[in-house]
Design goal:
Layout: H1 6-21, E1 28-29, H2 32-35, H3 40-43, E2 47-53, E3 56-63, H4 71-85, E4 89-93, H5 98-106, E5 111-113, E6 117-120, E7 125-127, H6 144-155, H7 164-171, H8 175-187, E8 191-194, E9 200-203, H9 207-214, E10 222-228, E11 237-238, H10 240-247, E12 257-261, H11 262-268, E13 279-284, H12 299-306, H13 312-323
Parallel strand pairs: 3-4, 4-5, 12-13
Antiparallel strand pairs: 1-2, 2-3, 5-6, 6-7, 8-9, 10-13, 11-12
């Protein structure tokens, strides 16, 4: 991430507030003697400023690195600073991943992302962005095969230069399904197509940038969850907390969770229950074996399956897992 000068950051924020609220926000850095009254572990991570919004004095905490703290940590920081300042605290962030925006909202953390979104529940302000629709097109729900293309390219092997028939053979699906998926990706401008009648995919972004750009569209792979006491002999992919424990410091759970493709679930006809059973079975929209290593679901699919859970321990380990990936 490119760090911007704080003066430029303040100027961008001021213009954004003026555009949305039709008022001039006089944003000023907090004086050093006042800054010392706040906890040092918080002042080290932010630039503190003050402003007046709609007749309310507020403290603005500027950060160019929105991934430095989890939304849960930011909520606690907000509470600590508010006790000292006796006024609302608002985080001003350069960029925030879509999944973290949802978590900030759930935690009711005041935030401004200049030119994108302003969420300040303490002042009854909730100005939402337009729906993200990269490159136009009406369909925002990603086709399952399109998601498989992205995940395989990121985690298993590059699909640069591969054509529609190559993808159909790789995932054992119809040409029509792959063609629809490829058109979807092209409409979102994450791939280009080259060649004549048989076209090849050209990815438009490096892997980490591709992940960040596609994340708002990538779907939770879990279609439904069932439970069972009688697993067949077939080996399924470990999923859930026990999979995350393989990639992190998280402890395993007593009961197992496994992932299985919906087509495979129909073939095996496992006896299941919607609520009760020793083993949790996730029925996936696509086959987890496409990306699995050592019988464990892949990191990116696991992230997509667990990113909306409220458990703070899980969220910290998920973020650490993604940040430590070698792309």
């Amino acid at each position: 991430m490119i760090m911007c000068k704080i003066d430029d950051f303040i100027d961008v924020t001021s213009r954004y507030i003026a555009e949305l609220l039709d008022l001039r926000a006089d944003i000023r850095p907090v004086e050093k003697d006042v800054l010392h009254t706040f906890p040092a572990n918080i002042t080290a991570g932010y630039t503190f400023c003050t402003a007046n919004l709609l007749g309310h004095d507020v403290v603005l905490l500027y950060s160019a690195d929105s991934s430095a703290y989890t939304p849960g940590q930011m909520r606690k920081q907000k509470e600590l600073v508010e006790r000292k300042a006796q006024c609302p605290v608002i985080f001003v962030l350069r960029t925030v991943a879509a999944y973290n925006v949802r978590r900030l909202v759930r935690h009711r953390v005041n935030f401004i992302i200049p030119q994108k979104q302003m969420f300040i529940p303490d002042l009854l302000i909730d100005l939402k962005p337009h729906k993200n629709n990269i490159g136009g097109g009406e369909e925002t729900q990603i086709p399952a095969i399109a998601q498989c293309i992205i995940l395989y390219h990121l985690e298993v092997k590059s699909l640069e230069g591969k054509g529609t028939y190559d993808i159909a053979d790789l995932f054992n699906v119809s040409y029509a399904n792959v063609n629809r998926a490829v058109r979807w990706l092209k409409d979102k401008e994450v791939i280009a197509l080259s060649g004549g009648k048989t076209k090849s995919m050209i990815f438009q972004f490096k892997k980490r940038e591709l992940w960040d750009r596609m994340l708002p569209f990538l779907a939770n792979p879990i279609e439904r969850i069932v439970y069972t006491d009688s697993l067949p002999d077939e080996v399924f992919c470990i999923s859930g907390v026990n999979a995350l424990s393989e990639y992190s410091m998280l402890n395993k759970e007593k009961n197992d969770t496994y992932a299985i493709a919906k087509e495979e679930a129909r073939r095996l006809q496992i006896r299941t229950d919607k609520e009760y059973g020793e083993t949790r079975i996730e029925i996936w929209r696509y086959n987890p074996c496409f990306f699995s290593k050592n019988g464990i679901v892949d990191k990116l699919s696991l992230f997509l399956a667990m990113k909306d859970m409220d458990d703070e321990r899980i969220q910290i380990e998920l973020e650490t897992m993604i940040n430590n990936m070698i792309w």
